[in-house]
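Re: beginner question about structure tokens

> Can someone show what the tokenized structure looks like for a real chain? I only ever see the sequence side.

Sure, here's an example I had lying around. Input first:
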Amino acid sequence: MKERRAKQENDLRAILVDVPNEEETGRYFGFPMEVPFYLKDAWSFCSPPTAEESADAAAFIETGNMPGERLEAVCKITADDDTVVRGLITSVPKL
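And the corresponding structure tokens:
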């Protein structure tokens, strides 16, 4: 399991797991989701999306209107037995 930590300026704290590091060829963007106040400072574990998560995020990607953007990871926090989606990580190619 490969891990990297990234703290976005928008307060999304992400530990990327099994997400290839392509910073030389692309730029990453974090999009936090609304969560209860006590989870905002928590680190989330981000991993490549499942087929269902990719389908759900397709509309989000389309609304961003960023050519070449793709979904890289879904970030989640587990609190007791509840799992909360904390945010999404997308990327675009560097040109």
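Each token stands for a local structural state, so reading them left to right follows the chain. The CA atoms of residues 20 and 45 lie 14 Å apart.
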